[in-house]
């Protein structure tokens, strides 16, 4: 059966982990027992469970927020309590993400039945906080902290322990290339390979077959180092006669097309800009063919060839998912309602890319330049490389932190990255991808990988003194070079919304601006 709980419940290959977990929870004698059971789990989950004996409703999400769970607390206009994985964009229901710091409990026996008391339900919810995960210690991943009756809400956070605070000496030698691993990094490189290999193994085993002869697994594939690393490890743990779908999305972006045809319009006076824009709109609408060779398509095709060399014998279905601007506009309403309560410009550009990519409807080719054939990916499980940049120092802000405050500032920034993981985009992404009846898994965010990387000194993971494509995510780059993926090991980072051209289709609005 399919495995979604990767640790914490003993499950044989022919058992269903959800059923096994449900049996354990149903057998719990108290709320403490329920929290203890859930505190030992590793895997993406969201749950609500009514414990009849204590007349209590328990609900919560996994500590990293990998599954969506929304809550609407009673209001005067909507005097009801609602838990849901999606909101459908209904504005008068004030949905918010359920906090990952705690497991929550409503004891109905303690709640008065009058409407006034019900409207204050949020203030009456009890929370059982998780302690920070013990670094590199395996299970349990969370422990029960009994709350005092006078102060039921604790502030302790469900995040991995503190990032290693050690900083290097000022004379730390710099590496000059990825071909030679310095002695102090040899063990970390090997351990990273081992940790990622095991994380992927646990997340790809026992995936059910949806359509005979078709791929069970798909990877959100940009040709970047993160998604290519997942391809490499997945290849090690799936039978060689099974195909793997590589989902590569590209958008027709009117702004990019205009720039291609007319150059930079910013040099023109305003009245000429308006006239030129009108002319170009007419010109673009008459084009019979739009190029979808966006940056992620180019790097994806390059990495496809490298994968075929390093991982021979595997059928890699490179699925070209081309999205015309008109189709983007048609999907706009459903994507925005599905991603709600996420509501910014950046939320939409990222959700748009994930929605079309996870739908899996595109074309494949038998060889580069051959005629495209329609293809629909039926894979139920999608691997996502999210988490690598946060844990290994892959963002430009990590380099900026070093330039302004040295190694201690980088350590502080990496701690912020880990602290923010549960409150970032994982719930939104789950809502988008699950709307197609599929699920995403994040091997870089397995708690074992997170704890391992948090434990490493900062200079074992990155070196902001080095060039981009070498010093950022240095440890992962060395690991990929060691396993033979030379091209991708030095590839520079590119955000999904820019690599696929899903961002800034109609202007230069900042990503943090709320949608209209």
From TrEMBL:
User: Any coiled-coil ranges, and where?
Assistant: none
GO biological processes? asparagine biosynthetic process
TM ranges: none
**InterPro entries, alphabetized:** Asn_synthase, Asn_synthetase_domain, Ntn_hydrolases_N, Rossmann-like_a/b/a_fold
Domain Asparagine synthetase, by residue range, is: 405-506
Domain of life of the organism in this record?
Eukaryota
Residue numbers spanned by region Disordered: 496-516
The answer, when asked if rRNA-binding is one of the entry's keywords, is: no
User: Which Gene3D superfamilies does this one have?
Assistant: Glutamine Phosphoribosylpyrophosphate, subunit 1, domain 1, HUPs
Which UniProt keywords are listed?
Amino-acid biosynthesis, Asparagine biosynthesis, Glutamine amidotransferase
Give the signal peptide range: none
On whether Amino-acid biosynthesis is a keyword of this UniProt record, the answer is yes
Question: A GO molecular function for this record?
Answer: asparagine synthase (glutamine-hydrolyzing) activity
Which portions of the chain have biased composition (kind: Basic and acidic residues)?
503-516
- The protein depicted here goes by the name Asparagine synthetase domain-containing protein
**From which organism does this entry originate?**
Agaricus bisporus var. burnettii (strain JB137-S8 / ATCC MYA-4627 / FGSC 10392)
Q: What is the lineage of its organism?
A: Eukaryota, Fungi, Dikarya, Basidiomycota, Agaricomycotina
């Amino acid at each position: 059966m399919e495995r979604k709980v990767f640790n914490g419940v003993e499950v044989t290959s022919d058992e269903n982990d959800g059923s096994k977990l449900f049996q354990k929870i149903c057998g719990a004698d108290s709320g403490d027992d329920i929290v203890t059971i859930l505190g030992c789990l590793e895997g993406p989950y969201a749950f609500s469970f009514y414990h009849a004996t204590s007349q209590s409703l328990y609900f919560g999400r996994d500590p990293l927020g990998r599954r969506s769970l929304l809550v609407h607390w009673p209001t005067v206009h909507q005097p009801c309590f609602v838990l849901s994985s999606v909101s459908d964009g209904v504005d008068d229901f004030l949905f918010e993400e359920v906090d990952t710091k705690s497991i929550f409990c409503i004891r109905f026996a303690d709640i008065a039945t009058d409407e006034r008391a019900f409207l204050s339900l949020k203030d009456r919810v009890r929370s059982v906080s998780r302690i920070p995960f013990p670094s590199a210690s395996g299970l349990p991943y969370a422990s029960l902290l009994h709350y005092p009756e006078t102060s039921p809400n604790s502030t302790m956070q469900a995040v991995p322990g503190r990032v290693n605070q050690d900083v290097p000496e000022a004379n730390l030698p710099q590496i000059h290339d990825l071909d030679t691993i310095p002695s102090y990094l040899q063990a970390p490189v090997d351990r990273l390979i081992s940790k990622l290999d095991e994380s992927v193994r646990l997340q790809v085993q026992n995936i059910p077959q949806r359509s005979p002869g078709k791929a069970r697994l798909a990877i959100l594939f940009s040709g970047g180092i993160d998604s290519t690393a997942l391809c490499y490890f997945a290849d090690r743990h799936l039978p060689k006669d099974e195909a793997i779908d590589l989902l590569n999305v590209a958008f027709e972006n009117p702004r990019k097309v205009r720039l291609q045809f007319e150059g930079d319009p910013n040099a023109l006076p305003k009245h000429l800009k308006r006239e030129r824009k009108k002319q170009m709109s007419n010109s673009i609408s008459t084009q019979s063919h739009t190029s979808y060779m966006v940056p992620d398509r180019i790097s994806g095709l390059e990495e496809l060839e490298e994968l075929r060399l390093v991982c021979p014998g595997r059928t890699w279905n490179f699925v070209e998912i081309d999205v015309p601007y008109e189709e983007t506009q048609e999907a706009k309403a459903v994507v925005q309602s599905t991603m709600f309560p996420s509501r910014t410009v950046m939320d939409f550009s990222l959700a748009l890319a994930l929605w079309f990519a996870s739908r899996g409807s595109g074309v494949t080719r038998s060889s580069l330049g051959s005629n495209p054939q329609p293809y629909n990916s039926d894979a139920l499980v999608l691997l996502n490389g999210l988490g690598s940049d946060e844990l290994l120092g892959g963002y430009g802000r990590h380099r900026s932190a070093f330039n302004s405050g040295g190694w201690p500032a980088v350590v502080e920034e990496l701690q912020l990255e880990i602290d923010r993981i549960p409150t970032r985009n994982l719930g939104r992404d789950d809502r988008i991808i699950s709307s197609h009846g599929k699920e995403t898994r994040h091997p870089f965010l397995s708690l074992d990988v997170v704890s391992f990387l948090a434990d490493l000194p900062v200079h074992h993971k990155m070196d902001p003194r080095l060039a981009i494509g070498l010093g950022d995510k240095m440890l992962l780059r060395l690991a990929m070079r060691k396993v033979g993926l030379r091209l991708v090991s030095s590839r520079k980072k590119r955000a999904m919304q820019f690599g696929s051209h899903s961002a800034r289709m109609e202007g230069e609005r900042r990503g943090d601006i709320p949608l209209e």
